[in-house]
Amino acid sequence: MATGFTRKALERFTKPRNYGELEEPDGYARITGPCGDTMEFWLHVDDGIVTAVGFTTTGCGPSRACGSMATELAEGRTPREAMRIEQEDILDALGGMPEEHQHCALLASNTLKATVEDFMNKQAEKEMERQTICSSCDKETCSAKTQHPNENPEEYQERRELRSRLCRIQHKIIVLSGKGGVGKSTVAVNLATALMMSGKQVGLLDIDIHGPSIPTLLGLEHETILSGPDGMVPVELGDMKVMSLGFLLRSPDDAVIWRGPMKMGVIKQFLKDIAWGDLDYLIIDSPPGTGDEVLSACQLVEDLDGAVVVTTPQKLAAIDVRKSITFC
Fold it and tell me: What is the mean pLDDT of residues 135-155?
């Protein structure tokens, strides 16, 4: 009998869970490790949740146990959560494993991550196939249908790409405030969440460059942005797609010291280069006041459907919020 293995691991030596290929998988990967073992993973994703994972391995008992546990840990999670399953998570779930066999858990983790990445790339490719520049817009008055006299071809193409994203979003709403600390970001999160829970496809864009709060409010501080064929992939929380500069900072304590043109550049990138897809609503959480970020968002979006202006009853807050209303 093998020594140094827990009962949980030994059970999966001979009876691994989820062993075998899945038909019509949403993601697939095959990796051969340094030890010579080859693992294959297949997964199904429904409504943003990993519903089934299958695997095979050419390895022995420890390889089967690690592959089995990786599939068990992945099921019921979002693809992003499944990508965060590490070697240590698999070993901990098995109750440990002798050091000479721990590489099997690393192979299982890497193969699972590659499978999820394959799924995400396929989703992005499907999105790109559906999208052609300005094909989603049937408005004769769309500003991207004609080139402005003062535009060069590169600027015109960039504006067409921006409009092609925005034309697939039915409603755009910006959330403003005159002063900070009045609950503007909380209102933006609650509005986006309520719309999502009512069955809408929602995007939440945080354009507060110097003080992004959305990642903290949604418990997404440790999320990062992935790249796909159709652009950067926003963080997904159910049917809500979220983007914030906070996802791009190495540390939440990092200060962002940018002037106006740089702010407009990153906001344009958030609107043009993020794979938002088809949305019913895009909620834009802005910083306090009527500065560069708010002005840039309004100029780039062009056809905002409305604004939510947040204030508190205090006189100082009310005085400043009037400026936001005038701006609207």
Answer: 66
